[in-house]
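> forwarded from #structure-qc
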């Protein structure tokens, strides 16, 4: 009974792995490459991301900065990101003015009401250093498309990746069952790679041991990744958890009604100061300004640092009075809402900053190797069976 139960799991693990191996290899490899995409882009163009500054230097007022950039780029500043690190550049998103209002197209003009363009700006000189599009941008965009839908448009690629991800979950769970030794006295073997053995044994240990060490993170990646593949899964997970998945995508700012016809919105610095009073801890701030006269200003803050927790705090402020209309502190949210709001950083490995990214990178690298080492194990078993059949035939 024990043998048949184990053999059943072994057969499930084997054939599911063979059926999905190529797709999983591509998905895991592309995920590994994409893990540090932002860091690699910063290495390729460091002058856009960092500035050299004296210890006594002070950044330009955000009010002066936004006004100057709006004039220079012939548009309207709709968002500004202010990092905690004083040697990092600001990111300023500028929406192009409607063609009827624009006398001429500036550096950011010509988009005709499309998506805002995000610029890197020196906070001490207001110099525009470039946009978020760079030499590596298209490469990583292609890597992401390969990861999400295998570069196959029309939903077919997304379906294939989703099915392969479901199979991967079964592979992880069945692999965990197979990892447990038949004899309990051999339990230590599953925790180490016997490097002084022949290559077949080393290959088997790499598949078995590395798979065990990375199974938890791989399981988290798979469970969260299905939210991008299947709408029914995303909605079902939201109902199960009692909170909407990716709620922030379609969420609009609250209404901000002007007290008088000639009312003028408060300066940007006022919103920043009021947000800091509500969220006093240090961190990276993002101010999403109102694109019209009827919505609130949204200020969010995330922690900075090697172990930075990625959960943001957010406050919506009336653009005329500056009064808080809604305060959303992550620590005050119910546990189910906290978990659901962390689905994206949990999948991308950003939940604890660079520290978790390193762990995810290693786990993705292991996942990329599993189809290869698993295939070699299968091939070696086939080679063993052939001599046995020949001996039996001869007998």
């Amino acid at each position: 009974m024990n043998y048949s139960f184990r053999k059943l799991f072994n057969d499930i693990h084997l054939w599911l792995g063979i059926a999905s191996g190529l797709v999983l290899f591509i998905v895991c490899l592309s995920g590994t490459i994409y893990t540090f995409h932002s860091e690699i882009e910063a290495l390729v163009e460091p002058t856009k991301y960092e500035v050299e500054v004296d210890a006594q230097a002070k950044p330009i007022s955000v009010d002066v900065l936004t006004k100057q950039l709006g004039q220079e780029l012939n548009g309207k500043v709709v968002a500004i990101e202010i990092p905690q690190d004083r040697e990092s550049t600001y990111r300023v998103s500028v929406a192009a003015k409607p063609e009827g209002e624009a006398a001429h197209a500036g550096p950011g003009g010509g988009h005709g009401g499309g998506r805002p363009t995000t610029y890197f700006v020196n906070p001490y000189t207001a110099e525009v250093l470039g946009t978020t599009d760079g030499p590596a941008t298209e490469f990583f965009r292609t890597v992401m498309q390969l990861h999400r839908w295998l570069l196959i448009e029309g939903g077919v690629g997304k379906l294939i990746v989703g099915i392969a991800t479901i199979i991967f979950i079964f592979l992880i769970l069945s692999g965990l069952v197979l990892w447990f030794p038949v004899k309990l006295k051999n339990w230590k073997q599953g925790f180490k790679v016997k490097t002084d053995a022949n290559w077949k044994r080393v290959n088997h240990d790499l598949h078995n041991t590395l798979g065990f060490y990375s199974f938890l993170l791989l399981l988290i990646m798979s469970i969260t990744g299905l939210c991008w593949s299947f709408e029914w899964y995303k909605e079902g997970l939201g109902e199960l958890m009692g909170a909407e998945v990716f709620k922030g995508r379609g969420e609009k700012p609250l209404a901000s009604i002007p007290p008088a016809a000639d009312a003028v919105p408060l300066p940007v610095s006022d919103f920043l100061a009021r947000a800091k009073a509500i969220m006093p801890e240090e961190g990276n701030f993002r101010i999403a300004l109102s694109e019209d006269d009827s919505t609130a200003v949204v200020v969010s803050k995330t922690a900075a640092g090697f172990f930075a927790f990625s959960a943001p705090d957010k406050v919506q402020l009336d653009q005329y009075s500056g009064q808080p209309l809604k305060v959303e502190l992550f620590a005050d949210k119910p546990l189910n809402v906290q978990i659901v709001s962390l689905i994206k950083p949990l999948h991308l490995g950003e939940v604890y900053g660079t520290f978790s990214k390193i762990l995810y990178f290693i786990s993705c690298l292991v996942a990329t190797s599993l189809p290869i080492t698993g295939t070699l194990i299968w091939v070696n078993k086939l080679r063993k069976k052939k001599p046995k059949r020949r001996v039996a035939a001869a007998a």
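QC bot note: The chain has three domains: 2-38+138-242+354-394, 46-133, 246-333. The longest strand covers residues 75-82.
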